[in-house]
């Protein structure tokens, strides 16, 4: 072909498939990433078990890194909602920005 190593070809195809799945077919991004990473691994020469293991390890590492931040954010949001602070903040933003921008749209 172009003399490119197989993993590079797999990566290029996987990125193309990812973009097409997300933008054209409206497949959920998570599913599209699973499909694209599977394609990259298999075309790149990994076995099915190695590909699934790499996907699992990568997902676990990412979740471990941001899981605490997401968990704390969810807890903080729940506290704001239960205490009524979220509603107070919303009314304060509307008062500050004006009613024209209350839906996030400047008219």
Automatic annotation (TrEMBL):
Keywords: Membrane, Transmembrane, Transmembrane helix. The keyword Transport does not apply. GO terms for molecular function: gluconate transmembrane transporter activity. It holds the Pfam family GntP_permease. Coiled coil: none annotated. Signal peptide: none annotated. One of its GO terms (cellular component) is plasma membrane. The chain crosses the membrane at residues 6-23, 30-48, 60-80. PANTHER family: GNT FAMILY GLUCONATE TRANSPORTER, PERMEASE. This is Permease. It comes from Rodentibacter pneumotropicus. The gene is gntU_1.
